[in-house]
Amino acid sequence: MLAKAGVASRRAAEEMIDAGRIEVDGVIVQEQGLRIDPQTAVIRVDGVRVVVRDEQVYLALNKPKGWQSTMSDEMGRPCVGDIVAERVSAGQRLFHVGRLDADTEGLLLLTNDGELAHRLMHPSFEVPKTYLATVNGEVNHRVVGKQLKDGIELEDGPAKVDKFVVLEVGNGKSLVKVVLHEGRKHIVRRLLAGVGHPVTALVRTHIGSIALGDQRPGTLRVLGRDEIGKLYEAVSL
Question: Which entry of 73, 82, 101, 103 is annotated as an active-site residue?
Answer without folding.
Answer: 101
